[in-house]
């Protein structure tokens, strides 16, 4: 039997006190790649924030990588985030640390102790995203595409069961967006499960995957031809 990586059942998604999505039913199985689309303010980010523990799930049922979102406590969130990788639109890198130190910070924060193992892991993920030789550079010395590659490397550090990407190409030019998308596709082909919020319809058309849409307070699956 397939074990869902993510399962929501009649879940209500709130942004503070506002109900933004009601009665969400959605299942993500291991190896799936779904786009999450919808206009600004339609609930995409609120849904993702609920999935990684920034917002509480107040009504309905929800499990993600074996965590019950309804029962999620503050102390559980670091453990949840070891099992999921998060990629943000604005990279969220620490500007006062170089690439290596940014990744080292995450590993230490998630319980890694051995310097040798930390070094090996960082080299491995930087190799996967094609940026190994820039380990000594500070984020502001990198292009936007390179910074997003570092952010994707960071998301891969703890070999997550699920990658949540919130508009990962939103701040990038079209050419760089394609490069980042190629990288995410390769990661997906290696067996990773991905849920990616985007408003870049060119990417959706070029890299066909399943798509769910937030609209009118609901989440529903759309067929590729009807994505626009």
From TrEMBL:
Per its UniProt record, what Gene3D superfamilies does this chain match?
A: P-loop containing nucleotide triphosphate hydrolases (3.40.50.300)
Q: Which GO molecular-function terms appear in the entry?
A: ATP binding; ATP hydrolysis activity; transmembrane transporter activity
**The keyword Transport is annotated on this UniProt entry:** yes
Which keywords does this chain's UniProt record carry? ATP-binding, Nucleotide-binding, Transport
SUPFAM superfamilies annotated for this entry? Answer: P-loop containing nucleoside triphosphate hydrolases (SSF52540)
Give the CC-aspect GO terms.
plasma membrane
Task: Name all ABC transporter domain ranges.
Answer: 6-226
- InterPro entries on file: AAA+_ATPase, ABC_transporter-like_ATP-bd, ABC_transporter-like_CS, ABC_transpr_LolD-like, MacB-like_ATP-bd, P-loop_NTPase
**Any coiled-coil regions, as ranges:** none
Q: Answer whether the UniProt record assigns the keyword Nucleotide-binding to this protein.
A: yes
* Record family assignment: Belongs to the ABC transporter superfamily.
* Its biological purpose: Part of the ABC transporter FtsEX involved in cellular division. Important for assembly or stability of the septal ring.
Name of the protein described by the UniProt record = Cell division ATP-binding protein FtsE
Q: Where does this protein come from, organism-wise?
A: Tenacibaculum todarodis
